[in-house]
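Handout, page 2. Input:
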Amino acid sequence: MDDLDDYRPGGRAAAEFGIRSPLREAGLTKQEIRELSRRMGLPTWDKPAFACLASRIPYGTRIEPAVLKRLDEAERFLKDLGFRQVRVRHHGTVARIEVEPAEIARLASPEIRRQVTQKFMELQYLYTALDLDGYRMGSLNAVLDRTPPV
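Output:
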């Protein structure tokens, strides 16, 4: 229910193909799902949200399996470094990293920064950018709400 106000092209596609969303149909919020999962003893009850990797690619950009693989590897690398909530946004030769605002300083520390830039170069990103706003759901949707400058 939390995502109803957000632009979700995958949700539209799912509806067009008759795919059901039982938790949404039940009217459950993310917090309610987490609480019910915790009560049931599920080990994933507090797992961070993980949207489809295609949501890391800007609108109008062709989604290629090789790019999805690069994004998956990049995010796994950051999670292995201990970052819990991570998004790597693909902008061609630029990888834009979003982590929780409280973790930005750690990601920018010299040792971590060196490891990340080295790994991302191996993943064929020429540039690695750290988004100073931090992780936010649907950040690529900002272009949808953009009004031209005056």
